[in-house]
Amino acid sequence: MTEHTTASGDLGRRVAARRGTLGLSREQLAERAGIDAGYLAYLEETAASPTSETVQSLASALETSPEELLGDMADSPSGRGPAAKPSLDKLDPNECIHLIFPGGVGRVAFADVGGPTILPVNYVLHDNAVIFRTAAGGPFDENLRTGVPGVEFKVAFEVDRIDHLNQEGWSVLIKGGAHLVSSPDEQAVVEAAGVQSWAGGERDLYIKIVPNEISGRRIRRHP
Q1: Comparing C-alpha atoms, which of 168, 154, 170 is closest to residue 216?
Q2: Which residues pair with 106 in a beta bridge?
Q3: pLDDT tens-place string over residues 93-107
Q4: Strand ranges in 19-153 using DSSP code E only, listed in sequence order
Q5: Which helix (H) or strand (E) holds 192?
Q6: pLDDT grade, residue 9 (50/70/90)?
């Protein structure tokens, strides 16, 4: 059975720091470790649960040990952080946009015939709009068409970064209409944004979410 390591954001920071020390790009490290470059970006930027084999491969590629990459996590119970006073702060829209600007993985929430649905997507931010691509005939294509020109279903889009070890993190929530790109001119613009899908395959339907509500929260711990 494959074992998964409960990893906080510290693992990603250690991987990125060690990679920088060795002067490796993400693509070079991914090739050394035998993993996808997109997945490496996800590990560096989020709290993830990589397999022990992945941690071992990264350690070998980075010329270090799994223990060095994991740090104190291996000895720390999941969810236990330092005894510090927490604060929950609201983020203004500009802070929210800044946090999600690098792109990556987010979640789209919408209502389908079976009820509320949440699906992960790879996204980019272009002109302050969220852009992702999907397959024709898939859940987004089937459930986000109103059939009325100019009328769009309202969806929610969420991105977060969580540090389980230190019990810190942030989340950003965007609400807006889901616009299914159809015109050739608009198609050219969103294609140039360069959003990729880890799932691969034919994903030629682009969807753009123009925010009409942006909110966010951040949890910090202070000594």
Answers
A1: 170
A2: 121
A3: 999 999 999 898 999
A4: 85-91, 104-112, 115-126, 129-134
A5: helix 184-192
A6: low
